[in-house]
TrEMBL record:
<dbReference type="InterPro" id="IPR018060">
    <property type="entry name" value="HTH_AraC"/>
</dbReference>
<dbReference type="InterPro" id="IPR016220">
    <property type="entry name" value="Me-P-triester_DNA_alkyl-Trfase"/>
</dbReference>
<dbReference type="InterPro" id="IPR018062">
    <property type="entry name" value="HTH_AraC-typ_CS"/>
</dbReference>
<keyword id="KW-0479">Metal-binding</keyword>
<dbReference type="InterPro" id="IPR004026">
    <property type="entry name" value="Ada_DNA_repair_Zn-bd"/>
</dbReference>
<keyword id="KW-0234">DNA repair</keyword>
<keyword id="KW-0808">Transferase</keyword>
<dbReference type="GO" id="GO:0008168">
    <property type="term" value="F:methyltransferase activity"/>
</dbReference>
<feature type="domain" description="HTH araC/xylS-type">
    <location>
        <begin position="85"/>
        <end position="183"/>
    </location>
</feature>
<dbReference type="GO" id="GO:0008270">
    <property type="term" value="F:zinc ion binding"/>
</dbReference>
<keyword id="KW-0804">Transcription</keyword>
<dbReference type="InterPro" id="IPR035451">
    <property type="entry name" value="Ada-like_dom_sf"/>
</dbReference>
<dbReference type="GO" id="GO:0032259">
    <property type="term" value="P:methylation"/>
</dbReference>
<dbReference type="GO" id="GO:0043565">
    <property type="term" value="F:sequence-specific DNA binding"/>
</dbReference>
<keyword id="KW-0805">Transcription regulation</keyword>
<dbReference type="GO" id="GO:0003700">
    <property type="term" value="F:DNA-binding transcription factor activity"/>
</dbReference>
<keyword id="KW-0862">Zinc</keyword>
Length: 192
């Protein structure tokens, strides 16, 4: 088997072309997502330097890679609750980036429709509502613990449109960001 950093051109082509004739030859894991797939998987092509090749699914699992929900390598699949937990963890680590359902689904190796439906069933709210919840929690913390302007706080939590940030914050938190800051900062030290 190829070393991690030296994936053969043959295997790389199989991944890029989603070549199902290689499905019994190897599996590949993507270090940035922690997911492993069959060569025929229709997920987004990873960066070559992030690919690790495995002879079988057992080796990928023992290296702490999770099976892809899209291609179900070697007949394996992740329980729905675990998959949704991975998605929520990814959101919590990446809330400051641009995120939409397609980006989430691509990252989680699933379809947007399936992700939306399953996430709502497991979490009780949609992925978009969860993203907003995480962003509002982080914005609340920044408003109370920093001297960042409202626009800077919005930008820091992945909401570059200040007007939309203020509107959503008021809708979710029942205060404007400025009111929230004044009300909840009460005598606490503010630092950057």
């Amino acid at each position: 088997m190829q070393r991690e950093s030296q994936i053969s051109n043959e295997y790389w082509q199989a991944i890029v072309e989603n070549d199902s004739s290689y499905d019994d030859s190897f599996f590949y894991g993507v270090k940035t997502t922690g997911i492993f797939c069959r060569p025929s998987c229709k997920s987004k092509v990873p960066n070559r330097e992030n690919v690790r090749v495995f002879k079988n699914a057992r080796l990928a699992l023992s290296a702490n890679f999770r099976p892809c929900k899209r291609c179900k390598p070697d007949g394996l699949h992740l329980p729905d609750e675990d998959w949704v937990q991975q998605i929520t963890e990814w959101i919590e680590q990446n809330y400051q980036k641009r995120i939409n359902l397609d980006i989430l689904a691509d990252n989680a190796h699933g379809s947007p429709y399936h992700l939306q439906r399953l996430f709502k069933r497991v979490q009780g709210i949609s992925p978009l509502e969860y993203i907003q919840k995480v962003r509002m929690k982080q914005a609340s913390r920044l408003l109370v613990t920093t001297k960042k302007t409202v626009a800077e706080v919005g930008l820091a939590v992945g909401m570059p449109n200040a007007a939309y940030f203020v509107t959503l914050f008021k809708e979710k938190m029942n205060f404007t960001p400025t009111e929230y800051r004044k009300r909840f900062q009460k005598g606490e030290g503010v630092n950057e």
